[in-house]
Amino acid sequence: MSATFPVKRPRRLRSRSFLRDLVAQTTLSANDFLLPLFVRGENCNLPTDSFLGIPRYSVDECKKVLENATRKGIKAAMLFPVIEPEKKDETGSYALRPDGFLPSVLRELKKEKFPIALCVDIALDPYTLSGHDGVLATKDDIVYVHNDLTLEALGQMSLVHAQSGADVLCPSDMMDGRIAHIRKILDAHNFIDVSLLSYAVKYASSLYGPFRHMVGATLSHDLKDKKTYQMDYRNEKEALQEVMLDDAEGADMLIIKPGLPYLDILTKAVTKTTLPIFAYQVSGEYAMIKCAAQYGYVNERDAFLETAFSFKRAGASAIITYAALDIIDWLNN
Ligand code: PBG
Asked: In sequence order, what are the beta bridge partners of 89?
């Protein structure tokens, strides 16, 4: 071998950990995570079983988690209510009640003045008997989710949660025009500082199963999937269209969901908008790593860190993950 070959030796910078750290392109801190939390009522008679170590918290437990999250430096938590079956109806009307469960949770949590943004999912699925994100209607004997009737409900739901103290509202329903509609209602009531974190790109994914189990929103209707409103995973262009629409309609931040199977979409989406875009590592993705780790096939810590860095590297401003608190601990140790 000649003395000058090879000229380029990329392994040189990989050879010692301090050099690897010095040239690392991607960083993560507590500022990069949003923590999803399932909240249940004190007398919730659903089984309080957990999902791979993630419980349904009572409000008091929720406070403890938020205290802990504050210590760790988390900046945002997303609250998902567990609604008792007897409170559900055809149209999800309980979601619109100022005296409903989540508005009362918000008022309770607000008293604690955590330095954490309280984010609320805006969609009807925990509240409808069908488990769908909107109001059902029938046309020519075909049942479908009615876009504009659903918008009316989402607008009211948004207002009620803004009035109860939500910092950020997260429409996750994939109805057309909802960002413009919700923004208009918020502004008309002077909630100009309540932000909209839009689930702009949400695919009809098989990876939401554990979440639906946790909030008790398993699809129980003849309409067995959400493909008429959530997106087709064969498509990229409509994802970029959704991103540009939600930007134009007044969203402040966007979500791409699920996470890992859609890194290509994330990378392209960040070129179409200047808004911050978050990746959601959804419940099924969390479960894949957790279960593989339980079988000893992957190391949980390594797998969560690797996926978190992947989201950031692909262009995410922040990451929504059930493993947020653990990841922050692992980053610090
Ligand atoms: C509600 C909503 C869902 C998720 C977040 N908000 C379920 C769905 O759309 O069916 C899924 C989150 C996860 O799986 O972790 N619309």
From this structure: 128
